[in-house]
Amino acid sequence: MCTLKTPCVLLLVLFMQCSLNAQDKLNIKFGKVKIEDFEVKSPLIDSSTNAVVVADLGESSFIANTSDFTFSLIFKQKKRIKIINKNGFDAATVTIHLYVDNSNKAEELQDFDAYTYNVENGKVVSTKVGKSSLFTEKHDKHWIYKKFTFPALKEGSIIEYSYEVKSDFFFNLQSWTFQDKYPVLWSQYEAAIPEFFQYVTLSQGYQPLFTNKATQSQVSFSFTEHVERESVGYRTVGSGLNTVKVDGAVENHTWVMRNVPGLKEEPFTTTLENAIAKIEFQLNQIKYPNSIPKNYLNSWEKVADDLMEHERFGMPINRANNWLDKTVEDIVGNLTSPREKAQKIFEYVRDNFTYNESNNIYLTTDLKDVLKNKGGSVADINMLLIAMLKNQKIDVNPVILSTRDNGFTHEFYPFINRYNYVIAKVDLENKPYYLDASSRQLAFGKCPSRIYNGQAREITKSLAVPIYFVADSLSEASNTIVFINNEEKGAVEGSLAHNLGFYESMKFRNKMTSTVLDDFKKTVQQDYSDEIEVANVQIDSLKALSEPVGIRFDLKFKSFGDNDIVYFNPMLAGAKKNNPFTALERFYPVEMPYKIDEIYTLAMEIPKGYKVDELPKSTRLLLNDDEGMFEYLISQDATNIQMRCRLVLKKANYLNEDYQSLRDFYAFIVKKEAEQIVFKKIK
After folding, report:
1. Phi first, then psi: what are they for 108, rounded to 5°?
2. Which of 443, 422, 447, 421 is nearest to 434 (CA)?
3. How far apart are CA 75 and CA 97, in angstroms?
4. Which domains are delineated in the chain?
5. Residues 593, 383, 140, CA angle at the centre, nearest 5°?
6. With bands split at pLDDT 50, 70 and 90, how would you rate the model's confidence at 582?
7. pLDDT per residue over 349-358, tens digit each?
8. pTM of the model
9. How far apart are CA 347 and CA 332, in angstroms?
10. What DSSP character marks residue 180?
């Protein structure tokens, strides 16, 4: 037995040492590109690098608004990118986001400037991006996108742009992303925040900050206000302007990251939004001098109360909804048990309503329309389910969450815009059941793996109780059993039975809704070589959603009999043919949907007229001592071969520090499961 635990500390030290050889300060001037600037060098650039962000600078500050006694937010960005080859041309398409409020007041794009730089005949030639090249797209009612593409683009070009956004929306203090799909050599963000504005600062990612400092300064803001003047003595003065100065402390923040590796999506990733290095701000409070503070970040209790009074969330499910009486009574019939009623109602909604793949926590239409249209968003379907359950006086509440592909929520701060999904929680016989009727192939009390993304909240009146859906709580167990026997006239035949795990069964059932059995049989045969004939394919428990799907078929082996030497892989099903972890490095965690326990067993009679010339060796390998195990046990006697192969992963999530261990672990499995038994004909 051996243990696989490859330390990543040495690799990290070597990487950091390479980084130290790079720039310690920004040494370029925007708007002045020289010949030598086209030679961009970095340890992060290799043959697979298509573009590199040379520098990305952002700055946010507050200014006194001259037209009103308030502040405006100013955000500036400057960015330089080196295009290495044509596969990096997508970096030359830029989108600037501008917020629009409910009164159609929008942020303003100002001071836009952009150039493409190329070397022609030994000289740097610049091509300006005209303002007419800016394309405006209305993304939705709250966002306008300004898009542009750089002209004269070639392999080796440098592109550079800068712009300014003026905003009157204090909640929209710009976030900053330090990381990109391409390497970033220098990323810097500065924010000067007056003491009147208090923000919650949230940072994430797996890259260290090179600079993180804050200094304080005193600033005087000058405001101009209109005043009305009255008669004083013998003089009468009309309206005019009055200048008011407000002094206050300003926190000047500077964050810098350098030599940030490109972030590429790898297998077993929920969303790159969870991994990307960035900093965000949420407005918490505004307090001007001699005024009452105004709070913007509510408590979870206040959020729960607001949700329950929301016309697209709590109000529709808390009404009497007597119009549902006849429909629900027809569903439950003479049932009296709350659990039986809940299951019948769930199955009715699950089997008769179509999920349109739209995710939100709010209803998109009235519940009556959902019932009539027999479908809608996840909120439409599950809110109707909740209303039907409430109709039968069943204890049920909505649960809001964020799906795995939507990113993590924040446990302590109620950022409601991060939640995109709603399910039902039913309490029956002192036991909670979580129901999602948007998935057709789900059994009662089961949820799709997409919801297992950490913290969720059960919403009741004035309460938002935390619930945790973690992938480590799920275990996907499957097993395969193969028998191979000698038949009359020297034939070698056998059978294979494969019992799928719960989520594998769910996926298979979804597939079979659009696949006929004959076509499936053909795909089974395609999984095997011409030397193996598949027959009598059967599927068990296809409709029994609480049971695992079983796939069974017979096998006939054509290799034995005529060949002097037969190479036979005992892993007839389930062998790992490729390592899913191909990247040499990974800068964020491995996020699998569940833990794994796969067992494969083989009982085989040695074919008549043959002997075993070579047999793979048994082995057992541990992953990080106790986080996983691979076992390959094989033995033979005079007439039989016995084999048992098992893969166990005791965790669904692995830190990026464990990546190399996991990669090596899977590489070993792939190699081992490809080994073959060598049979030689007895002379």
Report:
1. -110, 130
2. 447
3. 12
4. 25-295 (2.60.40.3140), 300-469 (3.10.620.30), 475-681 (2.60.120.1130)
5. 80
6. very high
7. 999 999 999 9
8. 0.87
9. 11
10. -
